[in-house]
Input
Amino acid sequence: MSAASPLQFLDDRRSVPSRQLGEPGPDPATLRRMLQSAVRVPDHGKLVPYRFLHISGPARLALGDALAERTLARDPEAPAAAVEKDRARFSHAPDIVTVIARITPGHKVPEQEQLLTAGSVCFALLQAAQALGFGAQWLTGWMAYDEAVATLLGLGANERIVGFIHIGTPRMEAPERERPDPADLLSRWQPDGR
Output
């Protein structure tokens, strides 16, 4: 293996749209292996400020029905297309891993850092899925921030959804998009303008 191979793996990472993810998804042992890699993130204070909620099988469709109902509760005038879009959100990829931040208020580790750790887990899970030959997409949407959905999914008062990671077998090659040039984003700080 050449020294460039690991960086090429990172350079090749891209999201597969959830609508393009199908069966098969990872079996239970493979999913556990993905999660084993995903938890290897920076975690100041060793708080483990996250947990996982696996949504698969018929539960995906039940969640979609609940989202459609919630869409109408939020907006009784919602167009039928919007309601059906929400109903179908979780029906494509065979597995969805919900990454939930578990925030410890008042801890010496700031809440922002705890949230960043949970976000890092989302990205690491995307990489683990791709490393094992699956496609994945990190999504949120209004439902990640809705209190009724949080209650439906059993979140505690100190918890919030950081991402729904849709995982499955890609039905198409993931599209590439233009990436920023890091040189355009990098500046150098010098004390006293030196």
Strands lie at 21-22, 50-56, 95-102, 135-139, 159-170. Helices lie at 5-12, 28-38, 58-74, 80-88, 111-131, 147-152, 182-185. The chain has a mean pLDDT of 94. The two ends are 43 Å apart (CA to CA).
